[in-house]
Amino acid sequence: MNAPPQLPPAPASRWQQLVQVVPMLTGTIATALLFAGRDGGTYSYVIGAIFGFSTLGMLVTSAGLGAPKKAEMIAARREYLRHLAELRRRVRDTITRQRIGLHYRHPDPQSLWSSVDSFRLWERRPTDGDFGVVRVAIGPQTLATPLIAPATRPLEDLEPMTAEALRRFLDAYSVVPGLPIAVSFKSFSRVYCLSVRDARDGFDPGPAGEADPARGLARAVLAQLAVFHAPEDLLIAVCAGPDRRAWWEWTKWLPHALHPTGTDALGPVRLFGETAKELEERLDDLLRSRGRFDGEPDGQRRVTPYIVVVLDGADLAGSAHLGTDGGIEGVTLIDLDRDPPRLLDRSALVLDTAGGRLTTISAESDGPGPPPPIGRADTLEPAEAEAVARRLAPLRLAAPATEGRPEAPVREPGADFPELLGLGDPEALDVARLWAPRPHRDRLRIAIGTGPLGQPVDLDLKESAEDGMGPHGLLIGATGSGKSELLRTIVLGLAATHSSETLNFVLIDYKGGATFARMDRLPHVAAFISNLSSELLLVDRMTDSITGELIRRQELLRSAGDYDSVRDYERARAGGAPLAPLPSLLIVCDEFTELLQAKPDFIDLFVQIGRVGRSLGIHLLLASQRFEEGRLRGLDTHLAYRIGLRTFTSLESRAVLGVADAYELPKKPGGHGLIRIGVEPVIRFRGAYVGGPWRRAGRSAPAGAGAGRPRVRRYGTAYVPVPSPTPVDPAASGAPEPPEGGTLLDIVVDQLAGHGVPAHQIWLPPLGATASLDDLLGPIAVHPSRGLAVTLPQLHGALHVPVALIDNPLQQRRDVLWLRLDGAQGHIAVVGGPRSGKSVALRTLVATLALTHTPAEIQVYCLDFGGGQLAGLRDLPHVGGVAGRLDVDAVRRTVGEVATLLADRERRFATAGIENVADYRQRRATGNTRNPVSADSTDGAGGMGGALSSVGAGSAVSNSAMGGNGGTTGAGGGARGAGEVDDGWGDVFLVIDGWPSLRRDYEELEPVLLDIAARGLAYGIHVVVSASRWMDLRAGFRDLLGARIELRLGDPSDSLVSRKAAASVPSEAPGRGITADGLQLLMVRPQVSSSDPAELVTAIAAAWPGASARPVRLLPASVPYSAIADDADPANLLALTIGIAESNLGPVRIDFGSEPHLLAFGTTECGKSTLLRGLATAISTRFTPQEARIVLIDYRRSLLGAVRSEHLIGYGTGAEQAADLIASVADYMQRRLPGPEVTEDQLRARSWWTGPQCFVLVDDYDLVPTATGNPLTPLLPYLAQARDIGLHLIVTRHSGGAGRALFEPILQRLKELASPILLLSGDREENLGLGTVRFSALPPGRARLITRKEKGTLIQIANRPPA
After folding, report:
1. Catalytic: which of 407, 412, 591, 652?
2. I need a labelling partner for 1058 at 20 to 30 A (CA). Which of 36, 145, 770, 1266 fits?
3. Cα(764)–Cα(762) distance, integer angstroms
4. What are the residue boundaries of the FtsK domain, all occurrences included (predicted)?
5. Is residue 1206 annotated as a catalytic residue, yes or no?
6. pTM for the whole thing?
C-alpha cells in the first residue's frame, strides 16, 4: 500500500521577506543613479522605471512563494482516496474468492451428504498437502493477500483525512470474518475435545451426553475424514464404553471403520471396542510395527493407512499401544472424556467447544489465561452423521492403479457395467441373447457411463445421418484421468453386445500395449498392434495393412454388385442376397499424438479413413494424453464426437470440446469426462470401470452354519465370531464356484472367447521366426529313383524353387518368393551387409535345389569366400566341390571346369542341332540323347584324353585324378561323341560366396566368370554370387543377374530397390531383406522341421542311390612325361607339348613355328632344367637329326644325358666352349640369310635354304653373361629373323634379379619380340613388367604361360627326370 500524503512545510516569516527586498532596491537605485549621472534626460528615466517594475515583480513573487498551495493538497488527498478505493475493490474481490475457495475446500459438515455422489469423493491422497486437514469451526481469518501498512512519517506529519482513511481500511479488511478454520489432525497424536471449563472461567458447560458440542464436533470431524479420504488411506476406529456404544453405532456404515482384511460372521470386522485392549486386538496387525509419533511435517507421512481413534468413556487399562506416551506414528486419538495435562507437549491439541465457541490450546499457546475463542465450533447431529455414513456404505475403491494407488471409487468394481449393458451375471453370459440382431437404432450403440443424475450416457458410432454420433471420434485424457479404462470399457461393451459378424476391431496401442492387453482373445479382433514406439518400422507395415483393408472392402462392394456403401450391402443381404457378412470395423488408436510425432505422414491414412470410412463401414477412434490441433490437419472436420477427460491445460480442453470444463474435472478419482457431439451442449458423465477385481454377489458372506441354511443376523458394531462350518459333500454341492480374483474384463473376455466367427485378420504377425524348407515345399519323403525329395511332382526338375517368405501387408497375406531358374532369372545375386545371412541364403538355395532335383539334373560347384558357410554342403551328392579362398588350385580348376563345359556345350549344341537349352533339357528328360544327324568324330582333345587315361595307377597322376574315365579331355572328361546330346551334365550352378574377395584375390578369373555369366544361361550354366554391396558388381555383370535378393544393407542408400524400404529392414535379423517390389522378405532356413542343416545334408546323401556330381578335376602336382609324349599335331610338328593346362587339363603346346623362342624364369629347383630336358626329348623323338639339331649351353651340367643321339651338335659347359658353339651357329645362320638372288616365292615358302632346325637350349642363363662378355651375343642379329632361318633360342634363368636382367641385350631382344615366357615359382616382389602377372610361390613344375594369346595360363610342366 502507498503512504498517505504528508503536510507541506510552514512558509517563511514577513521579516525574512523584507530582508530579501533590501538588496534588490539598493541595486535598482544604484543603477538608476548611474544612468542619471551621465547625461540625464528621458532615457535615464525610462531605464529607472524598468528596474523599478522588475524589483516590484520580484517582491510580489517572493511574497507568493511562502504561502501553502491548498489546491495541491486537495489534489493529493483526492488521489490517495482514489487509490484506497481501488484497493478496496481488489480486496473485496480477494475476500470473495477466498471465501468461495475455503468453503469449497472445507464445506459445511451439514452439506457433506451431497459430496458423496460428487467427483470430490475421496479426493485427498496421502501425498496431497491437505491430507488429514479437517474443518473444526467457522470464524475470522487473515486476508489471503496480506495488507502490509506502508512506512510513513509520524502521524502529525500526515494529512489527517487520508491517514484516518488508511487506518479504517486496515481495520476493516485485514481480517475476514465467517471463514472455515481447519486443523491438520495428522500433525497431532492426541486431540482433546472438551466442552466444560472450570466454573471460574464463567462458561456454561452446555448439554451433556450425545448432544454434547464436543461429540457434535467429533462427528463433524469423522464425517469430513470419511468423505474426503479413501478407506485404503484412512481408517476410523471407536473405543467407547458400554453406556456410550449406541452414540457411535452409526460408524458401522463407514467403509473406513471396517478392517481391511479381517472378517467375522457379518463380513469385514468393524473397528469398534469397549476397551482399549479389545480395540487393539482388532488393530494389532496395523499397529504392531509402528514407531512412536515423531511429529512429521505435512506431506511426509510414511505410514499408511492413517488411523483416527475416538476415545469416549472406554477403559484404557491394559493398553499396549493407544496409551503410549507421546502417541503412535500415523495414529491420532480424539479423546472426549479425559482432561488434558496442565503442560501439553507439542503433539497434543485441545479443542474446547464450551458455549458453542471453539478455543484451541496447544504447547505454543502464550499467556497465563486461556486464549480467546477462534470461532463458532462445527457440529453434526447423529442423524446427519448416519445419513452420510449410509451413503458411503456401498462405495469402495475400484482397484490399485499402476502406481499402487486407486484410480477411481465406484460401487462394487464393475458392478455398474453389467447393469448398464444388461449383461446379467458376467460369469454366465448368455452370448446368444446378447449377440441377437439388434434394431438399427441400437446398432453400434452402448452405454459408457452415467450422467450427473445417474442416467446412462450412450456412445453411438453410427453417422449423424443414422441418428448417431459418429462415425469418427476423438478421446483426450491426461495421465490418471481414466483414458485407457474408458477405451477398454468401449471395446468390451461393443464386443459384449455385437457379434463378430457385425463388428470387428483394430486395436492399436503405440506404447507398450497395456491398454488392450488380453483383449486380443476376443473373436472380434481383426488386428492387435502394440509396442510400435520401440519398432517404428511396424508403423509403415500397419499403414499398408489398413490401406489394404480399405481396398479389400472397396473391391468387395464392387464385386458384390457395385454397392455404394456398406449400408446398401447390408440391406441387400437382409433382403436375401447371398452375400457374406461384412462387419463394421472400429479402429481404436491409443497415443495417436505420439504416433504422429514419430510418423507425421501417418495422418494421411487417418484422413483417408475419415473421408471414405463412412461408406466402407470403418469407424475411427483416436485417443491420446495430449492434443496438438496442428497435427490433425484435414482430419478434425471428420471427428464428429469428442470425449474429453481431465486435460493438462485449459487450452487443450478448449481445442477438444470448445470449453475449458475438461481442465476443471477432478484429478482423483478418474473416469469423469465430457462428451460433445457436433455443436450440441457438452454432456458430463462418469465412465464405467471394467479393470477392477470382480467380486461375485455374496462373496463376503460367511460359510453356512447349522443345517446349511443362511441365518439373518443384526448388523452392528459388535464382533460376531464365525461359526464352525458344516462339512459338505463335494459330490452333492454341484459345480464348483469359479476362482476369485479375476477382473471383470477377464471374465467377460473369457465368456466371449470361442464364440462366433473369427474376424478377418487384417494384421498378420510380422516376419519373425524363419520357416523351414518343408513349410514351403510340402512333405518330403524318400523316392525310389529320386532319393530324399519333395512329394509334389510338379517341382521335380522344374528349376522353380522357393527361397523366402514375403510379407505383403497391403494384400493381408504371406507370399512365397519363387525363383524361376529356367528363364531370365537363371543367374542370382544375393547382396547384403555383414551378418545379414548371405551365406545361409546360398545354402538355402542349394538345399532347395537338392530336394527338387537329382544329381543328374543339376550339379553345384561352390567357391566359398564367405567364411566357410558353404563347407557343410560338400557331402551333398549334387555338389561337385567346395573350394575355399586358400584352395588356389581348386578355385582355378572349378572356374576352368565350368568354362570348359560352356565351350564344349557351345560346340555340342551347334553340332547336335540343339535349338536352345530348353530343347536340351527336354531331350535329356525324354531320353532322346542322340543327334538325328549322327557324328562319329570325337573331341579334338581325344588324343590327349587317351594319353592321360593311359597313365598307370603307379604314376604320379592317376586316371581318377584326371577325370575318372578314359575319354576325351575337357569339362566332360568322358568319351561321349559330339553327336551325343547328353554330355553327362545337367544344369550347372556355380555358386560364389563373396564376389568382392574373389575379384581381389583372383583378378585374372573375373573375365572368365563374366564370360560364363554372359553366355551361360543359353547352355544351362547358372552363376550365383553374393556381395556386400551392389556396387561390388560391375554394371554389365549386374545386368546379367536376373534374380536379385537384397538382404539388409550396411548403407540403405546403396539399395537398387528403394532406400526407404531398405532402411526398414531390421538390423538384428539375419535373413531379412526386400524384394524387387520393396516388400519385406525372410529367407527360409536350409533345413526341414525335424532336423538341422547338417542332418538334412546327411539324409539327402544317404537316400540317393545313384552317382554323385562329378568332382572338380585338379591340376596334378606332377605329370609324367609319358602322359604327353605321344601328343602331337601332325600338321605342325614344331608345336611341342610341354605340359597340361589348368583350365581344361588339356595339353599345352609351344608353337616354335610361329614363336621361335622361349623364356623361362624361376627359382632353384622349380623345374627349369626339367623343362629343357623335356623339350630336348621331344625334339629328339619327333625329328630326325637331318630335321633338327640341338645345342646345349649348361654351365651346371644339369642336362647331362638329356640328348644322346646325333641331334646334339655340342654341349657347352663353360664360356669358351659356349662361345665356340654359338659362333658356329651364328656362322651357320649367316649363310641362311636370304640374298638378293632369293625370289619372292622362295621367301614366301621359306625354301631358299635347306637343313635342320637349330634349337639352342640355355640353362641357368644368369651364369652365362659375364663382365668380359656374353657368348650368346653373336646370335643377337639373327633373333628377329629366327622363324625364317630355323633358329630357336630357349633360355631359362633364375628369377632373382630377373627384372634387371631383362635389360641385358639378349633377354631384352627376346622380350621385344614377344616371345613366350614361363614364370615358374619366384619372389612376387620381382617385377618383369608383364602387367598384372607376377611371380608367386608355386609347386615344382607349376608355371604361368604368357603368350600373345594367353595372359598367365597356369600349367603343369611334364616331368622328364634325368637319364
Report:
1. 591
2. 770
3. 6
4. 454-654, 813-1056, 1145-1328
5. no
6. 0.62
